[in-house]
Design a protein that fits this description.
This protein is mainly β and about 150 residues long. Helices cover about 0% and strands about 45% of the residues. GO terms for molecular function: hydrolase activity; porin activity.
């Protein structure tokens, strides 16, 4: 998968934060959202992603996804709103292994192991999360209500 996103305006993406503005936090569902959501002021971002389904190797339910996202042309400001850079950058390398149970009492339950490696240019470090290496484990258990 290839994806591209571009923000514009005088601030990064405005989530609204309860002020009745923004789109109800929908941007975080863009294809290039893993650890970072790449929403800096005037930021452009591009992603390349590959997913492999191990069903072809007789391991149904097992998938591996890897992605690289790069953001550039970010207008970074200090905590007083003074612009310190108009070309800040960020990047993330993402890997995830997921297994989904195929049958039995746990059918459709899944376990995901995710790793993200995030780096930002020095002029963007204080604006966001800073350089980060992160591991996450997800256990998804579907529940039928009706």
């Amino acid at each position: 998968m290839l994806a591209y996103q571009q923000n514009s305006g005088n601030t990064g993406y405005d989530y609204g934060l309860g002020r009745g503005v923004g789109d109800g936090h929908q941007t975080i569902y863009m294809p290039n959202s893993y650890l970072s959501d790449f929403i800096g002021n005037d930021e452009k971002s591009a992603q390349i992603q590959y997913t492999y389904d191990f069903g072809a190797m007789n391991v149904p339910g097992l998938t591996w996804t890897s992605a690289f996202v790069y953001g550039w042309d970010i207008k970074a400001t200090d905590n007083k709103g003074t612009m310190i850079s108009d070309n800040a950058q960020e990047r993330e390398f993402f890997n995830q292994v997921k297994y989904t149970v195929q049958s039995g009492f746990a059918k459709d339950a899944s376990l995901r192991l995710r790793n993200s490696y995030y780096r930002a240019s020095n002029d963007y470090q204080s604006n966001y999360i800073g350089d980060t290496n992160e591991w996450r484990i997800f256990l998804d258990i579907p529940v039928k209500l009706f």
